[in-house]
Specification:
The chain is of the alpha/beta class. The protein has 19 helices and 12 strands.
């Protein structure tokens, strides 16, 4: 009876931790609380692993439900997609697609997420953890890092729930991402929470756990303060850039008068930005709905505008080659009016069901509306390389929208010589919801990791200029029309993270494999010490 009562109390702890942690990503102003919000989750997991009737199947189920609830809260803004009439869906089909998105995306994350609990339960029941119990908080941290990294793999992987994003309002706590990436921040957050949970559960080790948690948090904070206050290089070349935000949403973009409206609005904003001294002006993703290589009038307009303002433009549009390739692209227009249609940046990580349909035949059978969820009408082709733009000021690395949530794409651009990152985006689908703020936070994280200033232009916002420390020095609010001018630095010095990449993830994987191997050895040497559920006949 006591065991059943204890089991009933575990699930509320897990779900409480999941909900409160997700809320710190939705409301990053409360990001400092994230260093405590996972305490119930960690405590629930520790208690779960003490249960004598625990099976790996049950552990996976608890983990699946916990991760599912975490992402269900995080993805609440998907409801803002409704209605999807601009892609030809009626209200019923729009509601079905939104429901599939809100409830389906967390499902895709929860399937691998449940493995955190499964593997942790297996490790916790070995004699190794009995002999060295303080390994448990760090094992949980390493497993969570591997889970976040797994969210970057395949078309189902969407790394929207990185714990580091909750710290975007606490920039000193994010600066160590320049050393080992956002995964290092995740490791620290989980480790601090798990150590504090362990201190609460086991008073005999409270002082040791509290001391370790304090050291991890304080050393990270001190590093961040020092990093943000180090003097900047005085020899870095500066460039005056502008972002223009026409505030033309997805419903308007495909209307009959959209092209003329776009030309008038963006032309006027560009002229005003040029008057403020901007040399480089960045436009959002797919500003023009028709392919640039098929629209001579649009090319003439851009060419004349660049010459009139004597500026360089980076313009988002599409590029179609019939029966071959269809790209979501970014083009450069030089002050002499030249547009090189043979050199453009093509979006490398396309949005599933927005720009292409994975497993189209299966989706057509199971959820037909999803197969038609594309404003462009057909599948796009992903770009294959960074395709940096070489300019008189230096090399400019480009990203388009969804690209910015995958750290390796920004790394590739910088490793290929980019001195400045430019991001064109279209978040108009999400209006003024938490989704666009989370997307903006991803861009700030990429700037910190790579040590590059980043310029971001969105159709309806957010548009911004971000320093290499993640600070926003220019900002245009969502759902407003306007432009912003800022002086950014072109940098060539690489951060440690640019040099080593995701080495920390591989170290976490090696650590987990080492624990599994050591646990297996301990199991062979001391089979009598194993709980019953760890034996082969009780695994599931």
């Amino acid at each position: 009876m006591k065991t059943k009562t204890q089991s009933r109390g575990i699930l509320p702890l897990l779900l409480c931790g999941a909900v409160f942690t997700a809320l710190t990503l939705v409301f990053p102003q409360a990001g400092l609380l994230q260093w405590f919000t996972m305490i119930p989750l960690a405590a629930g997991l520790f208690r779960l692993c003490e249960s004598p009737i625990l099976t790996l199947r049950r552990a996976y189920g608890y983990g699946f439900l916990t991760v599912y609830v975490y992402y269900l809260v995080l993805y609440h803004w998907i409801v803002n997609l409704y209605p999807l009439d601009f892609v030809g869906l009626d209200n019923a089909a729009s509601a079905a697609v939104v429901a599939v998105g809100w409830f389906g995306l967390p499902l895709l994350q929860a399937i691998p997420g449940g493995l955190i609990f499964l593997l942790f339960a297996a490790l916790s029941k070995t004699p190794l953890f009995d002999r060295a119990p303080l390994l448990r908080p760090f094992a949980l941290s390493a497993l969570w890092v591997l889970f976040e990294w797994s969210s970057t793999l395949g078309w189902t992987g969407v790394p929207w729930g990185r714990l580091a994003l909750g710290q975007i309002e606490c920039l000193p706590l994010l600066q160590s991402a320049s050393l080992f990436g956002s995964y290092f921040i995740t490791f620290l957050i989980v480790a601090v929470n798990a150590l504090l949970a362990y201190a609460i559960l086991y008073n005999m080790r409270a002082s040791v756990c509290g001391l370790l948690a304090s050291i991890l948090f304080c050393s990270n904070f001190v590093f961040g303060i020092l990093s943000m206050n180090l003097p900047s290089r005085t020899d870095a070349e500066t460039l005056r850039v502008a972002v223009v935000q026409g505030n033309i949403d997805s419903h308007e973009k495909w209307g009959p008068d959209s092209v003329q409206t776009t030309r008038e609005r963006y032309g006027e904003l560009t002229r005003r930005a040029a008057e403020q001294g901007a040399d480089l002006i960045v436009w959002p993703e797919t500003v023009f709905p028709s392919p640039l290589n098929h629209s001579a009038t649009t090319r003439i307009f851009l060419s004349e505008l660049a010459q009139e303002c004597n500026v360089t433009l980076l313009v988002g549009s599409t590029y179609y080659v019939k029966d071959e390739s269809n790209y979501n692209a970014l083009f450069i227009v030089t002050p002499d009016g030249a547009i090189d249609l043979d050199h453009f940046y093509a979006k490398r990580h396309l949005v599933p069901f927005g720009e292409y349909v994975p497993m189209r035949d299966v989706i057509m059978t199971l959820v037909p509306p999803l197969a038609n969820l594309s404003a462009l009408g057909e599948d796009l082709t992903p770009g294959e390389d960074s395709a940096n733009f070489e300019t008189a000021w230096g090399s400019i690395g480009a990203l388009i929208c969804f690209d910015s949530i995958y750290e390796t794409l920004a790394l590739d651009s910088v490793r290929d010589g980019a001195d400045l990152l430019v991001l064109s985006s279209n978040d108009s689908w999400f209006y003024d919801s938490a989704g666009i703020y989370q997307h903006q936070a991803q861009a700030q994280l990429r700037a910190i990791e790579t040590g590059r200033d980043l310029v971001r232009a969105g159709n309806t916002g957010i548009s911004s200029a971000v320093t290499a420390k993640g600070e926003c020095i220019a900002w245009i609010d969502p759902l407003t029309e306007g432009y912003a001018v800022a002086d950014v630095s072109l940098r060539s010095t690489d951060t440690l993270y640019v040099c080593v990449g995701n080495l920390f993830v591989y170290l976490c994987a090696a650590f987990c494999l080492l624990l599994l191997g050591a646990g297996y050895v301990q199991k062979r040497r001391y089979p009598h010490a194993l709980p019953r559920f760890c034996r082969s006949d009780r695994l599931f």
